[in-house]
Amino acid sequence: MRQFVKFFPLLAIVVISLAGTATVEAATGLNPPVKLVWHYYKVTNTCDDAETYIRYQVEKFYKNDSSIAPKLLRLLYSDCMVNGCDASVLLQGPNSERTAPQNRGLGGFVIIDKIKQVLESRCPGVVSCADILNLATRDAVHMAGAPSYPVFTGRRDGGRLNADAVDLPSPSISVDESLAYFKSKGLDVLDMTTLLGAHSMGKTHCSYIVDRLYNFKNTGKPDPTMNSTLVSQLRYLCPPRTQKGQTDPLVYLNPDSGSSNRFTSSYYSRVLSHNAVLKVDQELLNNDDSKEITQEFASGFEDFRKSFALSMSRMGSINVLTGTAGEIRRDCRVTNANYGA
Q: What is the pTM of this model?
């Protein structure tokens, strides 16, 4: 059983079997272990080189655009944390999950579609979009500096969700609200603090932080927990309001990594120095446990890397479909019932 202790020394590690069926043990409250398999497509002899094909395509995309790492991370999070890791977020259509306000700006769809086309030409009807999304994300963030953690496979694809089913929270919520949300998905405070570390790269819209810059809680002043230098820097990039027809500007979540999109622990150092861009990130200091984890990760990058590998595995196991549940989509953008329609 994974446990964290006061000051989180060395981050007690989840035991993961790398052969046969995987049983992922985790903190109390996690959904029962699911039956996913290490190298499922090789073990079942259905598409031996599936993971190699995926990695090759990710490498090609990453060489041209390193931003696919944060894009795929956000895409996977948006999928798994809503209805489980079933690739429902990839489905197109009016009022589909990906059209929800919380999913504005989602990217990474093109690479998933390309990988699916390649796999369908080699192993038609075999590799699920849910597995592709999990594997491609692992490979992309590894290229950005994250550990190459084990991804157990055998997921199947789910059906369509409406936009109003998306319950992703605002990036301005309190740490208590954030923790309650993660716990509702079977995750814990260590997972929450670790997975928020994905904000070490990527961008966000100014509209998500403009209140922190100009009128925090209707005070007419900036958020007092934000470093004044950062306030000035972000005000230069984010006007108090956008004019009609003007786009909502984007800013880096972690100016330290910026356009390099490198996976680092500098996110946690920025939280400690009150230089977090999003309120939800700065809120980590308002909970004793998340504060101690933040301090641990700021001083030990390897601790963060290890915990990231484990928390990504846990998130990737939320409410997965296996066996005969769901389907293996022929096109990640549509269910099989609508394929070719």
A: 0.89
What is the structure's pLDDT at 35?
85
Residue 74 is among the residues annotated as catalytic for this protein: yes
Angle, in degrees to the nearest 10, between helices 129-143 and 50-64:
50
Q: Which residues are annotated as a binding site?
A: 79, 82, 84, 86, 88, 97, 169, 199, 256
Left (φ > 0), alpha (ψ -120 to 50) or beta: where does 105 sit?
Answer: left
CA atoms of 269 and 299, how far apart (whole Å): 8
Q: Round to whole Å and give the CA distance between 240 and 130.
A: 39
Enter the tokens of residue 174.
Answer: 């309190």
Strands 36-38 and 250-252: unpaired
The residue type at 21: T
Query: In this predicted model, what pLDDT tens digit does every residue of 170-179 receive, in sequence order?
Result: 999 999 999 9
Question: Judging by DSSP bridges, how do beta strands 36-38 and 152-153 pair with one another?
Answer: antiparallel
Sign of CA dihedral 53, 54, 59, 61: positive
Q: Which residue has the tokens 């190459």?
A: 148
Residues that constitute the known binding site for Ca(2+): 79, 82, 84, 86, 88, 97, 256
**Does residue 220 register a pLDDT over 80?**
yes
> Nearest CA to 73 among 124, 143, 23, 162?
143
Amino acid letter for position 39: H
Helix (H) or strand (E) holding 204: strand 203-205
Q: How far apart are CA 182 and CA 163, in angstroms?
A: 20
69 HSE (CA, 13 A, CB side): 29
Is 277 within 8 Å of 237 (Cβ atoms)? no
Q: Are 270 and 163 in contact (CB under 8 A)?
A: no
**Cα 100 from Cα 98, distance rounded (Å):** 6
Residue ranges for the known binding site for heme b are 199
Environment class of 192 (CB within 10 Å of its CB; exposed 0-12, middle 13-18, buried 19+): buried
From 2, 55, 74, 305, active-site residue: 74
Q: Which residues are annotated as a binding site for substrate?
A: 169
Task: Confirm if 315 and 191 have CB atoms less than 8 A apart.
Answer: yes
